[in-house]
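Batch manifest, entry 17 of 40.
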Amino acid sequence: MKKYAILLVSLFILIPTLSEAQNLTQTIRGQVVDKQSQITLPGASIVISNSNPIIGVTADTDGNFKLAKVPLGRLSLDITMLGYQPVTLSNLSITSGKELVLKVEMEEQVYKVNEVVIVGNKSKTQPLNDMTTLSARSFSIEETQRFAGARNDVARMATNYAGVNTANDAENGIVIRGNSPNGLLWKLEGVDIPNPNHFGNLGATGGPVGMLNNNVLANSDFMTAAFPAEYGNSLSGVFDLKMRNGNNEKHEFLGQIGFNGFEFGAEGPIFKKSHSSYLINYRYSTLGVFKALGISIGTGAAVPQYQDVTFKLNFPSVKYGSVSIFALGGKSSIDFVRSEDKDNEGNLYNDETFNIHSKSATGVVGMSHKLILNNTTWSNLTIAATGIGNYNILDSISTIDYTPMPYYRSTMVNKNLILTYNLHKKFNAKNNCLIGFDTRQMRGDFLDSTYLKQYNGFRKGVDFNGTAWMSQAYIEWQHKFTDNIILNSGFHVLEFALNDKWSAEPRLGLKWKFTSKQSFSLAYGLHSKTEALYSYFLLVNAPDGSYSQPNKKLGLTKSHHFAAAYDINFSSTLRLKVEPYYQYIFNAIVESKPSNYSMLNSGSGFYGIPDSLKNGGKGRNYGIDLTFEKFMDKGFYMLFTSSYFRSFYSGSDNIEKSTAFDSKYVVNLLAGKEFELMKNKENAKYKKWIVVDGRVCSAGGLRYTPVDVEKSAYFKQTYYAEDLAFTKKFSNYFRTDIRVAYRYDGKRMSQEFAFDVQNITGHKNPLMMKYNQKTQKEEPIYQLGVFPMMQYRVVF
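Output type: structure tokens
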């Protein structure tokens, strides 16, 4: 530990010696293309905003541009071309350790006269997917690094957006407009992927540590309602993540030490003449270091172990199309051994009456081929394999001598082979079309069993090894009546071949920009979702020892989304957006016998699934989201979001009640400021910045099921009063985070040392209720208290 600290201090002290007395500049380069057809745009003008004298270049015959010797710091680029709507890329961060490589997409104007000048923050407010009407935004990877408390995690970053709440601090599962975290869809490079989190469960969407490395991601989209027809098998939201290509002209490297692990990354050209590139990043857990420093990470005496690797290879070709190969893989493990943690303090995951040995692994590998067919048409074909596995051993133990007794065993593995294809057609400046399909073979290997005293042996909960198929197809059409009135329409079809269930889903959105600064939007979508594959093969045990599988005929849970939005840009850096919404859910999965159980509450805690299920439940979510945002300007930004909502469901008992996520409100306030040191010093050897970011979050308490004290006392472990599900409410949630960073730019190297404190006030936010055998009472388990994190990052 001392060596680790000495190494960091030494690096910090040696910073000034790593540079030479030369002007500090960097290169900005990239390519300009038509957004719909993806053809290059020769002749486009790229100019640094407010430069005097004007600093700029013109894109060459392949649409490529290069700005050399650009001063370090923040700047904006203005991109213009005759017949296209101008684009401004605002507040780009220029550092010494890494070239800035951009892909600029421009939209053709419907009318070439009396053009509307798009304000400078358009690229910030609009999602990358131009078929999206509302309830969506693009986000930069810088936001995951900058926002206090985000831990370089895209999911935790998203909890700052309107309509989004966190299920708990210990994991990054997110609640979108009152929906279960399990309703979220993760996509990477256009492919649906399983839970991309370490220690994440099959069928869930969150976990304690994100596996997606923000250092390899490009700007991406996040959607929360009525998303376009190309997205299916989701009820609440979509993360549509893109990986960036590696630098195809020079080799660059990254080193990082922080909460997410020891990290090393590299990128560069494979063959310079062909412009091919590689990008790779490897990460190994540092949570053992945090534990040794005495910092509670919510696992008691147990130390989580994990590692992951991400890479992308890109081989562009004008004649044969671009081929890219991408992969994400990680594994994790943890052992909760009660005899090694007798006090069981600071443990958010394990009951004191069990030993748990848990392992998990997730993998994604794929290859895509993008082909420009002509000046108006392009296609993308992707084949991929994905998989996720959970392996768990639970032993019940005596609280006196900690003797373990076998209780539960499980091996749950889900593998998918996926083929996706989409074809994009630009008919003219007014009309664009997208058609595509996604088909996959899903292979499950599920086996779990629980020891039951009455049988003096293990009884299976699921035992399946086989395959199932699911296919999706879609069409989207965008029609621009004018540059200011846009209609997005589409149709999505999902078929689940296991039981021949299917859904036909219309999607519709209309946006009207009625002044140069104001717009109004409406959107509707019908959405559906399958459940985790193992749910269909749960076994019902008969007294004679035989089994049945009553869930194989379960249909799709479906949802109508209605949303509206009013958006006003007071200036190029100040924006207000208001979004009311209503969601009606039907065909929800509930218990076959009358009860208050519903899968709409899944992800709310450590509760089991009944073995006999049916469709028939309902739910409804409604509310209003508000976003007031000042984009980064002169080193300062601010984001205020608030959501006021209600969330209800009814089980097979047909009684409507609050869902587990009916917290009623969420309010976030974030702000940050960059202070450049020695700003006016000429011929400086290096540049320095102090960056301060803060976040305050207040939310209504989530609902919970009280403990059945009598039953828990009898069985000496926690049991919940299921007939009173989610009738109790935790106290309101409050958390304040702060991040302070020191950034240094030399001639060829950029470094940052950051200190991030989560819940700096130490506010006690309850996570769950547990039965305490010592006091024989129901007692709260609290979420993480003051949680300090350090990070050192170097790019060269």
